Amino acid sequence: MLRPSSHHTFAFRTPNSRFFLSQRLRSQRFTSSQTAIPPPPPSRSFRRVLFLSSISLASISLGIYLATLPQINTLTALLRSPSTPSSLAYLPPTERATQIENLITNHPLVQRLRSDPEWTESRPHLRMPSVMQQHSLTASTLMGDTKIPVPPIMFTKGDKGEELIAISYLGADLCGHVGIIHGGMMATMLDEGLARCCFAALPSKVGVTARLEIDFRRPTKCEGFVVLKARTQRVEGRKAWVKGRVEVMPTGEGEAMRKEGKGEVAPYDKRGEVLVEAEGLFVEPKWAKVSGLRLVN
Question: What would the pLDDT profile of 237-261 be if each residue is shown by its tens digit?
């Protein structure tokens, strides 16, 4: 029989009852000590903040994409369109620019490239909308009667980004030392020229500079014509390796192109002297395929 104890608990009178009870209590204490206490569930306020943050981030990303989509489509249509006579036409604004334009377009190198069906002529800076052009370094900031008087003429070989040739005139306001074109200007020319050479070889036809190595061979004199030549070496997926150089534009046979005097065009009278050499690695960004942006020369 059971009887109440002084502490209001029950005790067994059988001989083994206390032993079994103590063993049971000890087993319960051991089990409780071995059982891990589960962490408390996240509070409702934390889950709400996390949910709202995710929604905000997704909304901002979508808003940025939708806001830039019209510009992307405009740029895509612009740069994918082939060169036309209207996009190649250029009316020089000054007498000096007119003289330089005539010397370039009538040069034997330009005439030879125009007559070769493997080469396609273009003037990318003339195809750029004015809204974009005014913020472009090479199409606006560096253009001018005493800088780059006329937009460079470019020729590309094939439709897979094989080779590129660009002819430019560099004025006196692009100098670092007196009479010598700034090295940063030459680097800018090579960066843009090598990149344009390989764009057509990339899957989405657009790339950014990952590495550019430049060797300056000789000083580049101002007030003269130069030729940039680039060739794509190899392409691996989204990567393209390109080599190029800037050299003196050779004068045509029998041409009296050099003139002395202030304000007169003074092109080089040397033949193909190498001024700067470069090689670069260009990579198509991952967002190019998502945005649908395709860039061609």
Answer: 999 999 999 999 987 533 433 443 3
Q: Cα dist. 105→124, 128, 150, 153, 200 in Å? A: 16, 21, 11, 9, 25
- The residues, ordered by sequence, that sit 6+ positions from 137 with a Cβ below 8 Å of its Cβ are 188
Least confident range from 81-90, 111-120, 269-278: namely 81-90
| CA–CA gap between residue 97 and residue 150 (Å, rounded) | 6
Rounded Cα distance, 175 and 179, in Å: 6
169 token code pair: 């005139």
Exposure string for 191-229, b = 16+ CB within 10 A, e = fewer: bbbbbbbbbbbbebbbbeeeebebeeeeebbbbbbbbbb
Q: What is the DSSP string of 2-32?
A: -EE-TTS-EE--STTHHHHHHHHHHHHHHHH
Q: What is the pLDDT of residue 123?
A: 93
Q: What's the pLDDT score for residue 145?
A: 94
pLDDT in tens, 175-205: 999 999 999 999 999 999 999 999 999 988 8
**What is the 8-class DSSP label of residue 34?**
H
**Dihedral over Cα of 198, 201, 206, 212: its sign:** negative
Handedness of CA 172, 175, 180, 186 (dihedral sign): negative
At 207, the amino acid letter reads G
- Would you state the torsion angle of the CA atoms of residues 166, 170, 173, 177, taken in this order, to the nearest 10 degrees? 110
